Amino acid sequence: MADLGEFGLIDRVAAIVREVAPGEDVLVGPGDDAAVLRVRKGHVVVSTDLVVEGRHFRTDWADAVDVGHRAAAQNISDINAMGGRALWLTVGFAAPPTLPARWALDLVRGFAEECASVGAGVVGGDVTSADKITIAVTVLGVCTVSPVLRSGAQAGDVVALCGRQGWAAGGLGVLGRGFRSPRVLVDAYRRPEPPYDAGGVAAEAGATAMIDVSDGLLADAAHVARASGVSIDLRSASFEIPEPLLAVAGATGADPLGFVLGGGEDHSLLATFPAGTALPEAWTEVGVVAAPGPDGPAVTVDGAPYEGSTGWTHF
Amino acid sequence: MADLGEFGLIDRVAAIVREVAPGEDVLVGPGDDAAVLRVRKGHVVVSTDLVVEGRHFRTDWADAVDVGHRAAAQNISDINAMGGRALWLTVGFAAPPTLPARWALDLVRGFAEECASVGAGVVGGDVTSADKITIAVTVLGVCTVSPVLRSGAQAGDVVALCGRQGWAAGGLGVLGRGFRSPRVLVDAYRRPEPPYDAGGVAAEAGATAMIDVSDGLLADAAHVARASGVSIDLRSASFEIPEPLLAVAGATGADPLGFVLGGGEDHSLLATFPAGTALPEAWTEVGVVAAPGPDGPAVTVDGAPYEGSTGWTHF
Description:
6-stranded mixed β-sheet, alpha+beta, Phosphoribosyl-aminoimidazole Synthetase, Chain A, domain 2, CATH 3.30.1330.10, 2 domains, homodimer, thiamine biosynthesis (chains A, B)
């Protein structure tokens, strides 16, 4: 990176971004003091995430293109979880001067490709040096329906899930043990496939609360429970455990349900709907919402606190 | 920070943010998957910056409150430089788990106070761990006039400056030599006072190009020159060198003009206006725009390339 220099790198990044994903309604793109964007309808929705080498990714577990895809995906998913549509992203990139410029440019390419997959564009960024690779992403979107918050779940609602759950945690677990297969799980970790269209559909179907599963299914269910002042009971039998996850669990003596309940790397969506709602396609009922118990909001599995392991811990 | 934990810290941060600067037109603030914002009029303007310990600040040269003010100021200034008004900011914060939570909360307080000074609010963020303190800021604003780009300068335009220029670079130079005075310069570095209202006023007065001076006056003039395909000549006699800067230069044998031409820490605004424009209050004419020479766009001082020092280099 030092060879290209800050401004050289910015020029190359801007060229990739323009080529891959120019974005719509971008009146001024990267290269000025700020980008200028046209909001045609609805409210602006914004979320931000920091992705740090060694904490959120390892360069030996995923290549730069994958890291770019993941960084964009986890942010786009936050807009999806409000019922909005992601349109524009900015990316701040800090790395050691010795990092090959190729790595940075590959990251940007993966990032821009993930954005393009939902019709979003990269509209700005910043480049600086740091000891560890650090990626700061902000996503802007629009929401033309009432945003679905974490706080709207009501006792009696059903809890539903959309998207893979546990796959990426299984892949992370495999990598953490030094293996590279089952490949389908490793790939799920390296490049998650969040259900990008499901958030808006759920909002229109009357979802009362919704969250992007990123801290782990139980942890994120607890965020909804606390914000809504309710308890949530998940039904373990409702989760379809994918075959490769069963295989990994069998080979290592782990409980496959732990990956499903603990995983947050697939960026599935968890939502609550009024009882009797015809769930939108691709959504599966996985539990129920109840009034909080005497100890306040809680999340249980099959009526009891979950005592099992929630997969291998992160690095 | 490790004692408070990620979610404990987020709760404390959110409380500070709500108390200091709730922001207007914030339909959903911090704490959900994303913030939701109402854009009443105009286009959305967005910019992002990474601020890294050891590169952009040192904890022994500025306290956490000052670092927060600076981080917000440099971003708000980017919106100002488009002719827009900053309304909402997000802040991603990464730091070693051993960092006292007090430091992080002071930073957030300074950040939120700077935002409040322009009527902007902090609407979201992220907290994670990293080896070095890293602050990722994104600012959103609205622009109700035509945004003023870097690329609009025309031969024959006058070049004008608004805001202090060289003060903060002088303060940084003083700190770099192990001193703490003149205090007024050190303070100017620690907590810049960008001319926040000047961008919109310049846009309405017909500015043809504008930029936030953050890389240094000569460097940023060069950004405008290249983007516009013009040359810029600055007139050294037009810069009023502040008394304390003269004192520092006198004591160290430095050329005080070097701080003015090389400094980027004051976040002044540089703009071009059609010749004959009555410059808005607080703007000073400092040069002229000319057609590019045979070697292309260039920036000169008093008709010649500037060969002098541009202040002490950064750490």
